[in-house]
Amino acid sequence: MSKGTRQTLNSSFARNHYDVVIAGARCAGASTAMLLARRGLRVLVVDPLRYGSDTLSTHALMRGAVLQLHRWGVLDAVRASGAPPIKATTFHYGNETIEVPIKPRDGVDALYAPRRTVLDPILVDAAREAGAEVVYGQSVVDVTRDTNGRVRGARIAGTDRRPVDVSAELVIGADGLRSRVARIVEAQVVYTAPHAACSIYGYWQGIPLQGYHWFYEPNVSIGTIPTNDGATCVFALIPQARFMERRRAGIETLFDGALAAVSPELRDQARSTVPFQTLRAFPGSPGFLRRVVGPGWLLVGDAGYFRDPITAHGITDALREAELISRAITADGDRGLQEYQAGRDELVMGLLDVTDRIASFEWSLEEVKEHHLELNRQMKAEVDVLLALD
Ligand SMILES: Cc1cc2nc3c(=O)[nH]c(=O)nc-3n(C[C@H](O)[C@H](O)[C@H](O)COP(=O)(O)OP(=O)(O)OC[C@H]3O[C@@H](n4cnc5c(N)ncnc54)[C@H](O)[C@@H]3O)c2cc1C
């Protein structure tokens, strides 16, 4: 990539010109930064929050994500964090229980579910180690363009709100579901999914379930995700419309009711120990696909593609996209990126569709089982794409 015009050095960043400026320093932004920096690009990442902060998200990783962490050499740091190995996923459809063991292959012998306060800093550390500059307390507030309208840099502001212009060959929005970069560049939404579910979750010590457990009953799903510090994340999902109708009851009541409807035993376990964090709720947001490639800009992670959290696949998506997009940037420039866009659409449409069908709650227990088989096929296809990169 060519060097841009050198301006007076600003005080917030080491340079005035970068190959790539990335908005957002979590799973999508930090891993894209790490991969691009490892390929020798000069990368700046900014995020308004602080290093190691939490975000509204549970954190179950699927095989594709663990494969990526292994390949990138950061899986040992995840293991060292104390996130327990997940050796099986157990599906409960009413009274039927199906346990699916995690088969050891391709460097993945278990899944993991590190807290976001653990995973995101591991990726940021790896990005910094690769040479990327990661600056917290700063947001991309606008882009700068040349006379042809191509994005040529980012306007970045800290809490003092005094903006600084940094020029770049590419500006990447890895700034999540409500992406400001996507809004600024007017990235077109090409598909919106019709459904959304509400998620409520919290953390408990001493829940005796091992591995991931996903439970399904009409109009409700609950589950458990073992994570760092001996804690288990317990979550409940209900249709968004039901949440809107009943939210005045309070999220504690809705959560307790969901657990009671599906697993009174789990509710009793949760009631008998003290949660160590208050419950958090996500009211739901329909899935969407945006165009993710434009002149001088890209979107990665939730900024470009959101699917309901019910299939716990967003982080896995973000890590896969980071890999594919960084290869496309460094391999073939603009042509590679156009091909990336087409490939991305094809790869994720099936995932988005089956996720939306599960989030609709318009299924019988037999039907949701079929949806999971379809989801499993989609995830195998995703892993095949990643393995083919070798
Ligand atoms: C309730 C819930 C549960 C979930 N559970 C799971 C799960 O179990 N497994 C799973 O894989 N996925 C799960 N997800 C999805 C997952 O959280 C997302 O897919 C993932 O966080 C996307 O990562 P990201 O890096 O694209 O965006 P984010 O994690 O949202 O990070 C975006 C970052 O951009 C920063 N930012 C925002 N605006 C700007 C700006 N203007 N300039 C610079 N930076 C900016 C933000 O501060 C933030 O740090 C869940 C989501 C929800 C809501």
Can you tell me about this structure?
With 390 residues, this protein is α/β, with parallel strands linked by helices. The protein is built from 10 helices and 18 strands. Strand 7 and strand 8 (164-173) form a beta hairpin. Helix 2 (63-71) runs parallel beside helix 10. It starts with 16 loop residues before the first strand and ends with a helix. The model is unreliable at 1-8 (pLDDT under 50).
Q: Compute the separation of the termini in Å.
A: 25 Å
User: Which bin fits the share of residues in helices?
Assistant: 25-40%
Strand content: 25-35%
Low-pLDDT ranges: 1-8
The succession of helices and strands, N to C, reads EHEHHEEHEEEEHEEEEEHHHEEEEEHH
What would the keywords be for this entry?
390 residues; alpha/beta; eight-stranded mixed sheet; seven-stranded mixed sheet; 10 helices; 37% helix; disordered N terminus; binds flavin-adenine dinucleotide
Topology (SSEs and partners):
Layout: E1 17-23, H1 27-38, E2 43-47, H2 63-71, H3 75-80, E3 88-93, E4 96-101, H4 116-129, E5 133-136, E6 138-145, E7 151-158, E8 164-173, H5 180-184, E9 189-192, E10 197-205, E11 212-217, E12 220-226, E13 231-239, H6 240-246, H7 251-262, H8 264-272, E14 280-282, E15 288-290, E16 293-294, E17 297-299, E18 305-306, H9 314-359, H10 365-388
Parallel strand pairs: 1-2, 1-8, 2-5, 3-11, 8-17
Antiparallel strand pairs: 3-4, 6-7, 7-8, 9-15, 10-13, 10-14, 11-12, 12-13, 15-18, 16-17
Helix pairs in contact: 1-4, 1-9, 2-9, 2-10, 7-8, 9-10
The chain binds flavin-adenine dinucleotide (FAD).
Flavin-adenine dinucleotide binds next to α1, β2, β6 and α9.
